[in-house]
Amino acid sequence: MKLTPAELESLVQAQNASPHQLLGMHPLGDGSGLVVRTLLQDAAIVEVAPVHEPAKPRFLLQRVHECGLFEGITQDASRVYAYDLIITDFAGNVRRTRDPYSFWPSLGETDLYLFGQGNERRIYDKLGAQLREADGVPGVSFAVWAPHAQRVSVVGPFNNWDGRYHPMRRLGASGVWELFVPGLGEGTLYKFEVRNVHGQVVLKTDPCGFFFEPAPQNASIVWNNRKFGWTDNAWMEERRARNPLRAPLSIYEVHLGSWMKKNVAESYSYREVAPLLVEYVRRLGFTHVEFLPISEHAYYPSWGYQVTGFYSPTCRFGTPDDFQFLINALHEAGIGVIVDWVPAHFPRDDWALAKFDGTALYEHEDPRQGAHQDWGTLIFNFGRHEVRNFLTANALFWCERFHIDGLRVDAVASMLYLDYSRKEGEWVPNKYGGRENLEAIEFLREFNHLVHTEVPGVMTIAEESTAWPLVTRPPYLGGLGFTFKWNMGWMHDTLRYFSRDPLYRRYHQHDLTFAMLYHHNENFILPLSHDEIVHGKCSLLGKMPGDDWQKFANLRALLGYQWTFPGKHLLIMGSEFGQGQEWSENRALDWWLLEQGPQHAGIQRFVADLNQLYTGHPALWEADYDLEGFEWVDCSDSLHSVFTFLRRTKDGGQKLLVILHLTPALRTNYRIGLPTAGYWRELLNSDAALYGGSNAGNLGGVTAEELNMHGQPFSAEFTLPPCSVCVFVVDSQPATPTA
Fold first, then answer.
1. If you write DSSP's letter for every residue of 692-735 in order, what string do you get?
2. Would you place residue 484 in the very low, low, confident or very high pLDDT band (cuts 50, 70, 90)?
């Protein structure tokens, strides 16, 4: 059965959407034999040789087109059989390979059906570049979703990046294109050459690529991310049983490229930074590290928030195996790992997701729905099943393949509101005429449900800056289903208060008390994050008023308040030792400051002791979200800027008194109400000399007197150091007084 001129033209011009119907081995129409066709760039001679059945015919193919199209017919068999192509190139070199067009599809009907429904939870095992064996032959199965493309080919060094030689087949109405290429292995570079809906030929990276070339190159790289030898089984078992709401959670936020560098220009690799980061985080006592987005991103100044490779850790610091090594090392040290995850938007790079098949495939066509005006990025179309599947599977991918313990979802508010940062007429209402993005709401609920049921113990954290209700309540109660929500209101109010001159703080006492009015609406994390120390906002130390001594005292008080207030907490790197400059992704932290006198080292020591206090006293974390966990003793003394509160375990068995004094004056004989008799031992004093303070304090503690105060049956007189936080616990016996 000879090719028609149209069929021949479709092959040599790479315009055929079903190349398997013409290439490979096929019975002749009249049943008299078999025909084999193949496209080979460099072949001078091509021979067909049987593989499993030696008696089957062996025959030569003839070149029928100068581009390398070969065809041959045998009448010695009428049933298709497995065969190799023996190829002799123009230099006389001979190689033997299976024909890519002799294999069945690597995706079945069920896979495609579930993907079309948005329910193929492990679609990353099907799409992209999968290392497989087909009929005993090792190679790579390529698959990509591009429903409006006229033709898709996989290209790379193996075919000189020429889309004529490995065109893929469209699998029915699914929009998925597929091809198995034998002989390829890990490390192979590739892209998809797409003839889009407009007939334009464009090169696209793999949306499900597991690894990428360093920028400015952007080819995908075939990679096996299953081969790493994990040794964190004990951590994973413990994680599965852990209730994060009832556990300590002290998060150290890290941008890997700028935490610490080998030199001015070179960052540490994943493997190189592992022992350094593990030792440091363990020494300071943080329970978790949170990495700014680790997914591949071409634009480094985006800090990772403009993702171009959702299924790949960035190649800037090593391979996916190297990133797994870092996570494994943290887990072995008892440190959890959270990553920032960015499903809200993606960049407009023409080689990535944008207009993937010539249409708005992943995004909305209407810019009123599909474009972020503030960030210059595109918005995912959460109403499209396949897009939703791409994102929910991506969340599971990071938790399962990389053992991530938490996903902090960026820019949730921008997903929830159709009119986010838009003026009247710049947005499209939902079907009820409202401003809520109904598709995004359902996506977030589905994402949270899948993560919490498929990988128990993994946290999901919303960066949500509005008063949207029930963010951390389960979907069956009408909530979004997140484990935690960043308390942006607490962060703004607190930083506004601490940045004021202490002389005027008396007029703004409510800035530090207001958060408790809504605290029990959600499961909050208290963040002091990267967003607050960039773009002219100053470092945390730089925000503090007064001379150098007061700045450091205020920063210690701020951190002490954050650690003792109800809710889990997060601190951006550098703030734990009083970084002076704003953070920049282009330089390392100012570690040299630790050698410039006691103040910076004192802040670092204070944070380490805060974490020791925090993790060692369940009253500071066990009942964060219960009414029993917190009680104001007195928050009305605005004249002296004093706040006192109690933290308790759920059963009330452990009680801590926290005193926050935020003027630079030393106050003595300051009476505070106490709930129980006994000796109240001073556990922590931010004004201690070893932290760089003036060493004013309470000589180890105070003894409660049976004198009613602040509605409490007992009280005692305390010394309040300047700009300080002090924490006390009741003991049955007085301790020996200490300076």
1. TS-----TTEEE-BS--BTTBSEEEEEEE-TTEEEEEEEESSPP
2. very high
0.85 exceeded by pTM: yes
Which is catalytic among the residues 290, 386, 410, 446? 410
Q: Point out the domain boundary residue: 616, 650, 677.
A: 616
Please check the confidence at residue 107 and state whether its pLDDT lies above 50: yes
- Domain containing 527 equals 233-616
- Domain of 658, CATH number, reads 2.60.40.1180
Side-chain-side CA neighbours of 560 within 13 Å: the count stands at 32
Is residue 626 flagged as an active site residue? no
Mapping DSSP to helix (H, G, I), strand (E, B) and coil, where does residue 676 land?
coil
How far is C-alpha 622 from the geometric centre of its chain's CA atoms? 26
Structure tokens at 555: 């920063």
Q: Catalytic pick from 253, 463, 522, 622?
A: 463
480, 554: one domain: yes
Number of separate domains in the chain: 4
Cβ–Cβ contacts within 10 Å for residue 289, how many?
A: 25
Q: In terms of DSSP H, where are the helices of 565-646?
A: 598-616
Residue that finishes a domain, picked among 588, 616, 644: 616
Note the Cα 108 to chain centre separation in Å: 30
First to last CA, the chain: 99
Q: What three-state secondary structure class fits 89? A: strand
174-208 residue pLDDT tens: 999 999 999 999 999 999 999 999 999 999 999 99
Q: Does 637 participate in catalysis according to the annotation?
A: no
**SS3 (DSSP) at 188:** coil
Is the domain of 590 the same as that of 640?
A: no
Neighbours of 717 (CB within 10 A): 15
DSSP for 485-515?
Answer: EE-HHHHHHHHHHHTS-GGGGGGGTHHHHTH
